[in-house]
Design brief:
single chain, mainly beta, four-stranded antiparallel beta sheet, 50% strand
Length: 411
């Protein structure tokens, strides 16, 4: 009898707890109905939901690609055979229909601004949104070219790999020789031995077998050479390495943080200044390589205690400490530590990670939401658009926080 009473009381407690921890509001997207009303499309299982670009996220579902807004609603009243992310306000798409090889360029309203009739094998708006790269042939043995947003061919199909930086096109021949074209005039303006390694803040890094150096936005060589490494600019500073030692130059090429840090740690080579801080390493008194963060004067302001560290972003940086991953703020305070090998920030105090075949949501105290996602990209405008049980849904970050808080109770 007593066991029955205890069991009944336990059930009542659980029921009361459940009543006090409501599931967050899930907004089911209108995509299926909207697609059915607008155009026939063989939409299958959702395979990918992309991050938001210019307010739109791309969804791949079988032979159907479409764009949704933050409420998981169809944002452009068309579906596509294939579609790319928006760069600037433009994206390359292939319309549904018989001719699946013909590309079009659309803006964020879905308006077609350019029809491209040639049957290219791949076509994409460049990441700055000002030019279109196109190719013919199989990847790895294809030919590439560049056109402007009116469809005018600037660089016809040719065998070198092409990288676009501002109004410059870098033609890379076998990673050994770079020819530079001015895309506004179409003229060849310079040639260098070496390959381009990337660009930022108006400067391009070139590397060859014995040196690294910088080009400006006109394609002219301005800083260098450096013997070991030259990184991209961020917040007006770039990491340069000379004979195994690391320092920083400013946008005039002046060495403003002297050579004093170590090149041995690969992570510390790639980190850049964000939020006024940069992850760096130097052998400690025991000869161990640990990572800390320096300020713009070169002073180590967050101690060297980390095994690995990412750049700061929006006031926080991911770090690895004693085999665990966590998050610190710009003062070096440990905000959160977890057992996940990889996690990403959804919003203030809210994170996502992959665990046992699903994406879980957790907070700074490692408390988990009762909601799991099949897939979930980065958040946008205080909401997440993801997939739950095969359905596209939208949820607010606040509702997920409430769910975590309300699901913590003692039995």
């Amino acid at each position: 009898m007593m066991n029955r009473i205890i069991g009944a009381i336990a059930c009542i407690v659980v029921l009361l707890a459940c009543e006090s921890s409501p599931e967050p509001e899930v907004i089911l997207g209108d995509v299926d109905e909207a697609i059915a009303e607008t155009k026939e499309c063989d939409c299958g299982k959702i395979e990918m939901v992309g991050d938001f670009k210019n307010g739109l996220a791309r969804v791949d579902a079988g032979d159907c690609v479409y764009y949704v807004n933050e409420d998981a609603e169809l944002a452009i009243q068309d579906t596509f055979y294939s579609a790319k992310d928006f760069w600037g306000i433009y994206a390359a798409v292939q319309m549904q229909g018989d001719d699946k090889a013909a590309y079009s360029i659309i803006d964020t309203s879905g308006k077609v601004i350019l029809d491209i009739q040639q049957n290219y094998d791949n076509l994409n708006v460049d990441w700055e949104g000002n030019y279109i790269r196109f190719s013919k042939g199989e990847i790895g043995s294809d030919k590439e070219g560049v056109m402007d947003l009116t469809g005018k061919i600037i660089i016809p199909l040719q065998e070198d790999d092409i990288y676009i930086h501002g109004d410059l096109a870098m033609l890379d021949k076998d990673m050994k020789h770079t020819t530079i074209y001015d895309l506004k005039s179409g003229e060849k303006i310079a040639e260098y031995d070496g390959q381009e390694l990337g660009s930022s803040e108006g400067f391009v890094v070139i590397s060859n077998t014995h040196e690294f150096f910088y080009l400006d936005s006109t394609g002219q060589r301005v800083f260098g050479p450096y013997s070991s490494w030259a990184g991209e600019f961020s917040e007006g500073l770039a990491k340069v390495c000379h004979y195994g030692q690391v320092g920083f130059i400013d946008r005039t090429g002046e060495l403003v943080i002297p050579y004093q840090y170590d090149l041995d740690n690969f992570s510390a080579v790639n980190n850049v200044f964000k939020d006024g801080l940069c992850a760096m390493s130097k052998d400690d008194e025991l000869g161990e390589e640990k990572i800390g963060f320096i300020d713009r004067t070169g002073k180590m302001v967050i101690p060297q205690i980390y095994d690995d560290a990412d750049d700061f972003e929006n006031g926080y940086a991911k770090v690895e400490l004693d085999g665990k991953n966590g998050l610190i703020d710009t003062k070096g305070n440990l905000v959160m530590i977890c057992d996940f090998n990889y996690f990403w920030i959804l919003g203030e105090g809210l994170y996502a990670a992959y665990e046992n075949g699903a994406n879980v949501i957790f907070d700074n105290e490692n408390r988990k939401s009762s909601i799991t996602f099949d897939m979930i990209p980065d958040s946008y405008n205080g909401k997440v658009v993801g997939v739950i049980d095969g359905e596209l849904v939208s949820m607010t970050l606040d509702s997920l926080r409430d769910n975590i808080a309300n699901n913590v109770f003692d039995l």
